Amino acid sequence: MKKLLFAFLLIYAGNIYAQKFEGLALTPPMGWNSWNTFAVNINEDLVMGIADKMVSSGMKDAGYNYLVLDDAWMAKERDNQGNLVTDPKKFPHGIKAVADYVHAKGLKFGLYNCAGTKTCAGYPGTRGYEYQDARQYAAWGVDYLKFDWCNTEGINAKEAYTTMSKAIKAAGRPMIFSLCEWGSNKPWEWAAPVGQLWRTTSDITNLFSGVKKINNWEPFSVMRIIELQNAIRKYAGPDHWNDPDMLEVGNGMTRNEDRAHFSMWCMLAAPLIAGNDLRKMTPQTTEILTNKEVIAVDQDSLGVEGYKYAEKDSVETWIKPLKGGLAICFLNRSLKPQAIEFKWADNPLHDDLSGMTVNFNTTAYKVRDVWTKKDIGKTTKTFKQEVPAHDVVMLRLYK
Ligand code: GLA
Q: What is the pLDDT of residue 18?
């Protein structure tokens, strides 16, 4: 009897002290966020227009279900009770009204704030108001909180994010908690019990490779971000994802570059948070963002991040173990098309992390090109193809 009581107590304590709501992101979260295109220029009409388009463009059907408002939705000061105040010009009907609109479309709604005294764009931050703000978000119907790291001088990241995670839990409404401290404090080592995803780098920009300066600041190109992911793949998995930042698809790179960027995010089991103006999206962009076969690689239930298997003549070969098979992506980083030849039988695969072992000599897989959506033969035949400049060839292998 005593033993039983003790067991109950343990389970009860576990539930109270478990930091995050479990099971909200068994596959990487998908959605849209305002920052990459609109920065501080957001308002009620934009949210409603984007919500409409998420449904009519097929984004929602493809799995994008969170609409997240980033920085600058607030007024510059809290009220005299310390409550956050919505910017009355941008959101004349308040945040609850836009959240209701988004929910009525069958989508979920997300907001942004920051662990510091002010957000990165200079609006009231949450430091010292964690429980009060979490209650406010819950009352508004918020389903996702992105939590940034500006103006946090002298505070401990693990503690600050843990406090906010507990505040969300205490507020009682399940919310995905997205840590955005840019990988500065190695969140992959401690954030799995705290949130569902954590940024791994500084901010992305709409640049495939190379350097672009914005004033004195250097945001990261797509290739630079990819280079930093291989080493931390073991930390990600269902309900706790490495986040290499939001998508720049449709924001000015070429079609090939967009396709490569999107493919690689899927190989990395990255959260897929679109950041383009969905209301003006070209058919080409829609085709990339809503390719269900490529998305299925990202959303695979094993939840294992891909790894870099080989590198030759500027072509990287990435492998992602999948339930019942695997994906293989040839990424051409150069400005010239590159011919590839892959002899399956010469490439037995083994991945310690997932335990995947493949010997093409004893098991033949069917090969499908997930961009052309065609079955192209079996692994009994050497794969030969040209990969265009700044592009990929991405295959799914199944039995
Ligand atoms: C930081 C984040 C971005 C965005 C801006 C908003 O730079 O990393 O994703 O949220 O702040 O100010």
A: 59
Q: How far apart are CA 204 and CA 186, in angstroms?
A: 18
Q: Does domain 307-398 have CATH number 3.30.70.1350?
A: no
Q: Rounded to the nearest whole angstrom, what is the distance from the C-alpha of residue 394 to the centroid of ligand 1?
A: 31
pLDDT at 6: 52
Please identify, by atom number, the ligand 1 atom nearest to the C-alpha of residue 180. 8
| Conformational region of residue 253, where left means phi above 0, alpha means psi within -120 to 50, and beta covers everything else | beta
Strands 356-358 and 349-351: antiparallel
How far are the Cα atoms of 35, 82, 308, 395 from residue 69, in angstroms, in the given order? 8, 21, 34, 34
Give residue 19's pLDDT: 86
Q: Which residue has 């961009």 as its token pair?
A: 371
Cα gap 59→295, rounded to integer Å: 11
Q: What is the mean pLDDT of each run of 10 residues along the chain (399 residues)?
A: 52 57 98 98 98 98 98 98 98 98 98 98 98 98 98 97 98 98 98 98 97 93 98 98 98 98 99 98 98 98 98 96 97 97 98 97 97 98 98 97
Q: CATH says 25-298 is which class?
A: alpha beta
Q: Please state, in angstroms and rounded to a whole number, the distance separating the CA atoms of residues 272 and 286.
A: 14
Phi first, then psi: give them for residue 240, nearest 5 degrees: -150, 100
- Model's pTM, two decimal places? 0.95
| Domain locations along the chain | 25-298, 307-398
CA Rg value for the chain? 22
Active-site residue, 346 included: no
Residue 71 alpha carbon to ligand 1 centre in Å: 7
Ligand 1 pocket residue status of 66, Cβ below 6 Å: no
